[in-house]
């Protein structure tokens, strides 16, 4: 009975006590994937929810010299997103890279095509820009123009023509499917509005492929259709790079609604129309963009990259060119030197260390392998980050292609962590986009195995064996391991990828890199703890700053116990106990503003070693009961 209620005369008094509060379920949790991509924002963790969304943001195939390739990043994304629904991608670029831009010019009422350069024609002079469009993706692949393409290379241009007919700031008429162009398709001076199309880079004026259509845009900052409000002008910048504690800083005023561009340097026309609907200042109409179209220039790749035609634009030129697939090394991993170019990976790993910002449970870095100075350092950094977070797990590749079993076991024996695992050997998978078979390190496909495991079972089930560890996409493993090979690998905490006749290539182990023999030397137990800790920590956040009373403790128990009962019913726990009461919350702890709880778990173990005794008995013998 509430103490404030005053009861004088006899009667029946009722109160409502609502204890049915259900904490909000934790959001979708997925993997983080770090590596080079064809396009996309560099160094900025970006969430995609399907492989088609990944392709749109980061691309897939690219040309290097006369051949076509895909980065391991694309293959890993495809495998994971077959079964997972959330993937945080961090694109790696190194050196001095940048975004392509284009100046959208004022006032021309006739159809004129120009480049993003301010020197192409006399019309495009300083002060004649209405606004600037900046591609959201970094790199030279977003450029449709160059000052170095000669007439001898016009065979690369669709329909054999250059749109501006000149030699300076030449526009690739065909561009590429990876980049974009823009068009002002309508201008309405009486209303102060115009229409902007974002088109695919490989279309033409006769066969347009419109990606986005923005109608009734305005340069008036007081209008609801102000171009910066409609398209967006915000972008993320990584601050304190290389410090060990980088963070993202958002710049700009309006969130991005376009998937391809942001707006900047707008020549504003405040209160374009007066109360009578007339142009308030006649000169304002001259600031509107003219009906014209254009492309982007100025994008740079830094160390490694290609233009729209697959020609190298990066500053790194290793002997023999960039190496891919099974040819990679520590100093030439898809073009990157993992020692001298490692700063971008380090910043990506450090950014993902912010558990409040990035809700992940798995880290993949395909192309970063052990056995070299750069690769070893990055794997160790990722393991340290996951241990500091306490809620995610690294799948690391121990060796390069054609490395020995001894090399793989040496890499695992040099580490001691329950927050990571290694697999051996490499496997061959088909590349449907290129029509070829390619060799990839285990981490490329293991993300998909974990996602499949979680989809048909739970994280506390082993992502191994014929039921959940089959690599149905694999053509073959690099080598067919014998039983003795598997013993050697597993004894050193390297999980074998075995090949069985009629059953194909299969993951045949689930050990973490932990040296100590305990429940946490198994992947399913570590992932059980990650799942339980994530849920209870996220759900208990509602109790922070509540009164430290018995009622609050009961609220915690009402959160933890039902969840753990569910885990137990789904074969994750054999038993458990949660304690949060006066026995472990002493007056001293309460006075220090601490609410203390203890959760005792007995994880369900997996059957990894099935021992069967076959006893042959003579005729007439009696079978034991």
Can you tell me about this structure?
The protein folds into three domains: 30-94 and 315-524, Rossmann fold, CATH 3.40.50.11780; 97-301, no CATH class; 553-625, no CATH class. The relative contact order is 0.11. Strand 22 and strand 23 (436-440) form a beta hairpin. The model is unreliable at 109-126 and 146-173 (pLDDT under 50). The radius of gyration is 30 Å and the shape is globular. Helix 2 (72-81) runs parallel beside helix 7 and helix 10 runs antiparallel to helix 11. With 625 residues, the protein is an alpha+beta fold. The strands form eight sheets. It has an eight-stranded mixed sheet, with helices on both faces. Strands 7-17-11-12-13 form a five-stranded mixed sheet. It contains twelve helices and 28 strands. It has helices spanning 51-58, 72-81, 227-231, 343-352, 373-389, 405-413, 443-456, 465-468, 483-491, 523-540, 550-569, 587-591, and strands at 30-35, 46-48, 61-64, 67-70, 87-91, 97-105, 112-114, 129-138, 145-146, 170-171, 180-188, 193-200, 210-218, 235-239, 247-251, 261-264, 292-294, 300-301, 360-369, 393-397, 420-424, 427-431, 436-440, 476-477, 494-500, 504-507, 573-579, 598-603.
